[in-house]
Design goal:
Blueprint (H helix, E strand, L loop, with lengths): L12 H20 L7 H18 L2 H29 L18 H7 L9 H16 L12 H22 L5 H8 L1 H20 L3 H13 L24 E7 L10 E2 L2 E2 L2 H9 L1 E7 L7 H10 L9 H5 L7 H6 L4 E6 L8 H8 L3 E3 L16 H17 L4 E6 L26 H25 L6 E7 L11 H8 L7 H4 E7 L6 E2 L4 E2 L3 H8 L23 E4 L7 E4 L2 E4 L8 E4 L5 E2 L6 H20 L7
Parallel strand pairs: 1-7, 1-8, 4-10, 4-11, 5-6, 5-7
Antiparallel strand pairs: 2-3, 4-9, 8-9, 12-13, 13-14, 14-15, 15-16
Length: 629
């Protein structure tokens, strides 16, 4: 191995390699909580391949520029991945790039996650830029750089590193836990593994058919003990048709967790409206988020379809070109008109594609609302409900049954409520904290919903309308709100996983006595439950649902991924999070929130949910595409 003489023609490749590897170590420190020197070898192999390509392909006079560009791109990748992990709890793959155009619309949320130490990824770039400027002023010239190794040796080194990366990818591609997979493969090899798996999944799905996949899903679900064999009763399900012919309003509450329900601070209820609604409705306190990369838009997708998000892409972006079986399409057959309301621009998360895919007749977005500058999104929940009510009254006047989904935003991260809209004072210890801001934002959300309900009653709509209210996803961020501290401040047990992902679900049916339903569920279960109450049999309609009617099961298991690794699930007893597989996973009791050391009895649930979610992925990939509009 012979190095070229040093001097003005010295190659900067070694220096760039050192800089990049220091950043890889920094990234592992931020994300995996340790430098992990042994696992840095995986990162080093991938980086050497990239640097070797630059050395072999780029002419000497442009090599410095190419190396600088590569360094800058990798720095940006590591910086963005660190912020992404901090906010979402998972690592982005190349598919997350499809959502970069959404960043400016949530800039307040993104900006709040950045810490000064994150800018260390760009420190060397700043220093090198200063050196470059100084040399320009001084008139110092660099005539390019020679290779540090002979071409044959460089090719051999690149091949060895490429083969090493290939072997690592092959051995780790089957790990369902994305975090463990990225930790083992390194951030660059992880991207390649994601691309390979996406290609394999797509190829496998295309070899099947919608009908075959639906039949496989039905057969799999028939074999799961959702009801005890001794108590399962054939015939009409409980509450079937309790809301038949009623209007349906679905309100999706932004970043709304369950813990504020029935919570009092200094003797004052945080959510008095929802507390009252809980007593008059079917209230499900053990429902959990299941969103993927699309976040709020994925919650809209799930509540209308009972199909799992793939986790690889926002469903609005990846599948907005399909004809998706949905609640709006089912209700069209019952002569319902369907509308959806969101105060942001409809292109946010590609809702302009999602809503036609779901079969909504009409959507109302930003131009439909007066911007009262509540937060960075614009209009407040009060304005959202005002416009929604106007349209509902029009349907009422035309004697048309309607299905309406209303998506709120006033409790969006970072939870800043204008002073003149604050309706609760938080204790001194919570002032200026994310938890304190969150309490004020959900209190406002509750207040605005209360005004809407009163208007529904005054207009005569209340007694002829089923109201469904649920949270889309977690609000509090782990890095900003310590679970133990939150528990002490709130006077309740708050767990960073169970409590954070626990969202409320309320279904108010006029004339039906309310009750708390202890059954565990997820967003994928909303559509089957609502359909049952409307007297629509999904089986008779030949509709494929991957969730269950929560009013007619005794046991449940729901999958979750993206915010937790693939293979994670909630059942009636535990939250399970896998390691490399099942055996090295961990479990938490969802009621006591204490660790469960022996979870061996739940192996069947783990295998079942992995298979069910894979079938859901195959099913949605096989759905037919819509005609261009």
């Amino acid at each position: 191995m012979r190095f070229e003489p040093s001097g003005d023609r010295r190659s900067p490749t070694v220096v760039i390699f050192i800089f990049i590897m220091l950043k890889m170590a920094l990234f592992r420190h931020f994300v995996f909580h340790g430098i992990q020197a042994d696992k840095l070898l995986a990162d080093a192999a991938a980086v050497i391949v990239l640097l070797a390509v630059v050395e072999l392909v780029i002419p000497a006079r442009w090599k410095g520029t190419a190396l600088g560009a590569l360094n800058a791109v990798l720095s940006l990748l590591l910086f963005a991945s660190t912020l992404y992990f901090s906010y979402y709890g998972t690592l982005p793959t190349y598919t997350a790039l499809s959502g970069l155009d959404q960043v400016l619309q949530i800039r307040d949320s993104v900006g709040s996650t950045i810490q000064a130490v994150n800018y260390l990824f760009f420190l060397d770039l700043a220093i090198l830029f200063i050196i470059y400027v100084v040399n320009k002023i001084r008139g110092v010239r660099h005539d390019g750089a020679k290779r540090i190794l002979r071409p044959k040796i460089l090719v051999a080194l690149a091949v060895v590193c490429a083969v090493t990366s290939g072997m690592l990818i092959r051995s780790g591609i089957g790990i369902p836990n994305e975090i463990v997979q990225a930790e083992s493969l390194g951030v660059l090899n992880y991207q390649i593994a994601a691309a390979i798996k996406a290609g394999e999944d797509q190829k496998e799905a295309m070899n099947g058919s919608v009908e075959e996949t639906a039949a496989a899903a039905a057969g799999l679900q028939d074999g799961y003990p959702y009801q005890d064999a001794g108590t399962a009763v054939a015939g009409t399900p409980d509450y079937f048709g309790a809301a038949k012919g009623k209007n349906v309003i679905v309100v999706q509450l932004e970043a709304f967790q369950t813990f504020p329900i029935h919570l009092k601070l200094d003797g004052k209820e945080v959510t008095p409206v929802l507390n009252k609604l809980a007593g008059e409705s079917f209230y499900f306190p053990h429902v959990f988020q299941q969103i993927g990369q699309g976040n709020t838009s994925d919650a809209e997708f799930m509540s209308n379809t009972s199909i799992y998000p793939t986790g690889a892409v926002a469903m609005s972006t990846g599948y907005g070109d399909r004809v998706i079986p949905s609640l709006p399409r089912l209700l069209q057959q019952e002569q319902y008109v369907s509308n959806t309301f969101h105060i942001n621009d409809v292109t946010f998360w590609d809702r302009n594609r999602l809503y036609p895919a779901l079969g909504f007749d009409k959507y109302y977005d930003k131009p439909s609302f007066h911007n009262d500058h509540f937060n960075s999104f614009g209009a407040s929940d009060e304005e959202l409900y005002r416009v929604s009510l106007e349209k509902l009254k029009e349907h009422q006047a035309q004697d048309k049954p309607f299905y309406v989904q209303i998506v709120t935003t006033s409790s969006h991260h970072p939870f800043k409520v204008p002073q003149d809209r604050q309706h609760i004072a938080v204790p001194e210890g919570l002032k200026g904290t994310q938890l304190g801001d969150y309490i004020m934002s959900v209190n406002y959300t509750d207040y605005a919903l209360g005004l809407f309900i009163e208007e529904l009653k005054a207009s005569g709509l209340w007694e002829n309308t089923m109201l469904v209210v649920y949270g889309d996803h977690a609000g509090l961020q782990s890095k900003d709100t310590d679970a133990e501290w939150a528990s002490s401040q709130l006077g309740i047990k708050y767990d960073d996983l169970v409590s954070r992902f626990n969202i409320p679900l309320f279904i108010h049916v006029p004339g039906t006595k309310g009750k708390a339903v202890d059954q565990v569920g997820g967003q994928v279960d909303i559509m089957p439950t609502v359909s049952n109450l409307l007297g629509i049999s999904l089986m008779e309609k030949n509709y494929t649902a991957f969730g269950q009617d929560l009013l007619n099961i005794e046991r449940n298991v729901i999958g979750m991924r993206y915010y937790l690794p693939t293979g994670s699930f909630f059942n009636n007893e535990i939250l399970f999070v896998p390691g490399k597989g099942f055996e090295d996973g961990k479990a938490i009791d969802i009621r006591t929130m204490e660790p469960v050391t022996d979870f061996s009895a739940y192996r069947a649930d783990y295998d079942y949910i992995l298979e069910l979610m894979q079938l859901s992925d195959d099913y949605v990939r096989l759905l037919p595409k819509r005609a261009p509009q």
